[in-house]
């Protein structure tokens, strides 16, 4: 039997863009370090270099996991850890202050392959909130723990705690003082909010994961929880899509941003880029600004933001690239 036509058909199917699989795409990691009022003119060369180096360190940590055949879940965890430990970002060390002078940390993580998720909110003294969110997912029957109960669970799990001074940075303290002097501001687009960190990854087995970590918003009321620990608002991953968001959390919650973005891709057939912009437009309509990083199961990616800038980076087999300012300069 002449099998040539069938082989030709098979080759066409495999080569057509619609037939790209995770194995073809290879592993991909996207990260963000928050969206906000970032202008090249306002940033010194030294600060820019420091942020770029910190983004590269996060990409390197996450990429090592993927390059060694590790899971997307381990990759997003590994990418978040150095950003939580860096005083440059609003997550872990370097988190913003509440109006009464504390650091209350929020984080979440989601495994797209299993739809398991873990989140923590309003937690103090935990060095790496993303690890606590992951422990909630893997070592508790719950999805979301907050405040004292989350701290007690961190202690049970043997996670590392740090004294308040470890989280303290002059820059965040000054931002809180200025915000407090200006009076309590309603939630909305504002300066000094950026720095939340997030990661989404696709591994060699085609699994997706997402994680996000933050100190929330400057001078927030104590007890305030943002979108970051709300699964479906700031973080989401399923079999076809992974999202981590940053921006005015109240609006991202009200838009169910991350899960509705993925639903647009699954149900309306939108690309990551289309779904990202439609979601951000809906949030802007409500009055909020911010950004998202999005990956699908074939490695299609989007970095979209309605702010002036978003710290961001991408790692794949082609290398590691980072960007901070205009949407034009995508990594
Ligand atoms: N979305 C975060 C929050 O509202 C803040 C941010 O991403 O800058 O807590």
Q: What can you tell me about this protein's structure?
A:
This protein is globular. α10 (257-268) packs across α11 (272-286). It has one domain: (Glycosyl)asparaginase (Glutamine Phosphoribosylpyrophosphate, subunit 1, domain 1), CATH 3.60.20.30. It is built from 11 helices and 12 strands. Helix content is 37%, strand content 23%. It has helices spanning 4-15, 22-25, 45-67, 72-85, 129-139, 147-156, 164-167, 170-181, 249-254, 257-268, 272-286, and strands at residues 28-36, 105-111, 116-123, 144-146, 197-202, 208-214, 235-237, 241-247, 290-296, 301-305, 309-316, 319-323. The termini are far apart. By secondary structure, the chain is an alpha+beta fold. Mean pLDDT is 90; it is low at 1-23 and 186-190. The structure holds aspartic acid. The site of aspartic acid (ASP) has 14 residues, from β8.
